[in-house]
Amino acid sequence: MTRRDAAGLLILLTMVLPNLAPHVVEGGEQDIRNVILVLSDDHRYDFMGFHPGAPEWLETPSMDYMATHGMHIAKAFVTTSLCSPVRASILTGQYMHRHGIVDNQRPEPPGTVFFPQYLQRAGIATALIGKWHMGHEDDRARPGFDHWVSFRGQGEYFDPVLNVNGQRRQAEGYEADVLTTEALRWLSEDRPKDRPFYLHLAFKGPHYPFEPAARHKGRYSGKPIPYPDTMARTERNYRTQPNWVRERRYSIHGIDHMETGRYDDDPVPSFDEWYYGYCEAIHSIDENLGRVIEFVNKQGLAERTIVIYMSDGGFHMGEHGFYDKRAAFEPSIRIPMLVWAPGLVAPGTRIEQMVQNIDIAPTVLQAMNVPKPEEADWAGMSFLPLLQGRKIPWREYVLYEYHWEWNFPATPTMLAIRTQDYKYVYHHGVWDIDSFHDLVNDPAERHNLIDVPTYQDKIKTLRETMFADFESRGGLNTPIRIPAGERLDQRKLP
Fold first, then answer.
1. pTM over 0.90
2. Torsion angle defined by CA atoms of residues 246, 251, 253 and 258, in that order, rounded to the nearest 10 degrees
3. pLDDT tens across 360-389, in order?
4. Are residues 389 and 369 in contact, defined by beta-carbon separation less than 8 angstroms?
5. How far apart are CA 323 and CA 332, in angstroms?
6. How far is 115 from 8, CA to CA, in rounded Å?
7. What is the model's pLDDT at position 478?
8. I need a surface site. Which of 239, 241, 402, 438 has the fewest CB within 10 A?
9. Which residues in 376-407 are b (16+ Cβ under 10 Å) and which e?
């Protein structure tokens, strides 16, 4: 065991020992809880050490700790798997079609209200530290936050330039380390100690180009990679899939775009190289998540604080010949979600209800005893009762939407509805077939059953339900935006 590994084990022990038998609240009104939301970027749902779908060598002791001593929300989803839209949905509680942020190029529309504004109004101290990424290079402080530390666009993995309450400052070190230090400084020194707090800590990682901290670089090199079966360029994998799925293999977001020769001037590294980098970047995020949990424990805040860990979207790691997200396949739309809250959440619990990113706003307000404002227009629901182990009526399906991007044209506009057992996906604006998957018998979504006679009644019901729901929300008006940003539309030849 290395000295660093020994130190990591010591940190975990200091977290575990104080909370071996936390008291669980049975129900009713809660005392006001502080909330820390830790948000990563493109971390898929199953790449956590404790998850059976993870590479067996992936180490995430902090996430494992949260699952063991808190709750694993096993079926958590985003409403749009794209950075800016999903971040807007988290902060507004609204679908993309409602808040209007449909790509990564433009800022939020004037008048957009973020839920921390309601927290401020209630006297709660608020801080955003990390990635904002609504408006691309626009990192000016937004309404709702007393303390602001951010950076332009996607930011840099090393030595980022930070906007600290309107002042530029050159930082030194790995981005997640720097942001966590800023967060702990605010928690320990700058926040008002006489008020509850909401901290929004948003990391760049493990977003492409998948850079871990230098101390973790090469940690997993040479480990066996569990290549997904649907990654193969075979007739079986594409026999029933829509044409666009096969075609995306050759786009900037496809495996056959990266696995090419040295004369193609391809900026994307080999599959194995970025697979290891992705896992090492997740490990770096996990280490900093551990720093947050350790601080909460040592400062005596554990019984008054909810820590939520989640991602802004999933990520394909070769499935269907893809990398990146955007599509309605499971690796794209499912995210990790962990909640640690001693005294509120029973240790080692897991729920199977389908929770979405639009549920964060109402959940945080209820946890902080802030009544829902009359003007709040939320599509989400509070899952605080689920955290308490209470049985409440819950959604029977989730909706997903993605609108075609001029910048990355390989993925079409799509709407999807997912139940516990089935998924129907409608593809708009392309001469192609739709998709229907039996998630129980085919969790890898290899077989598109859209034309199978046995399922036609189920498909019809899901299609009608999905369109009726979107129509009732005003979600059937496809937005068209003036092209902006770089267009990455080159297609490699098969």
1. yes
2. 100
3. 999 999 999 999 999 999 999 999 999 999
4. no
5. 9
6. 35
7. 83
8. 239
9. bebbbbbbbebbbbeeeeeeebbbbbbbbbeb
